[in-house]
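Curious: why these numbers?
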Amino acid sequence: MNRTAILFVEDDPVISTGLTYSLKEEGYTVYTCENYKSALSVINDKPFDLAILDVSLPDGNGYDLCKRIKEKHEIPVIFLTASDDEVNVVMGLDMGADDYVSKPFRLRELLSRIKSVLRRYKAESGAPSVISLGNVTVHTGQGKVYKNGEEILLTAMEYRLLLILASRPGQIMTRGKLLEDMWDIAGDYVNDNTLTVYIKRLREKIEDDPKNPTVIKTVRGIGYMTEK
C-alpha cells in the first residue's frame, strides 16, 4: 500500500524537526525542505500528494512555490504563516492554496486539516467530468469552466465554490454549509463576509447579468442554489 507523501517547506528548524517527526509517526512519507531552492528540486523530481508551505522563506515565499506546484501537480496545498491577516489569507487562497494555518498551531488541528483536504480532493475527483448549468459548463477533469464555449478564468476558491454548488443542482446550500464544504473545517480565518465577496466575484464572471443571476440563485435568508 502506497503511503501518502507530503512536501513540507519550513525554515524554522524547531518547527521543521518537530512536525516532520510527527508526520512520519502518522504514517506519511515526508520530503522536508528549508528553503525555496531545495523545494523546487523536490517539486521537479519527487511525487507527492500534498504540500505544506511556510509563507516566508529565506530565499523566496510560499505563494510562488504554490504557483509552481499547481502548474505541475493537481494536489492540495496548505499554508503555514505567522500572519492571519485576512487580506493575506484570501491572496493565498486565490493563488491555489486549499487551507491556511496560523502559527502557533496545534498538531492535532493541522493533522485534521491534512486529512480533510485529502478527503475533499478525493471526493472532487469522483465528480461528473462535465457539469452543465445553462450556458456554463464545468469540466472537472481539467478544472476548467466555459461560458458559451469560451473559457472563464477563475481563482482556485472561485472554482471550488462553483463546483460545490454545481455538484448539487436544485439543492439549497446554506452559507454555513458552503463555508464548511469549502474548507471542511470550522475555519475562522475566512469569515461570512468573505463568502459574499466570492459569490459576487463568481457571478461577475459567469452570469449574463450579475445583478439578476440565473446560474447561482439567492434563496433569501437561507443561502444559494443552482439549477441545470
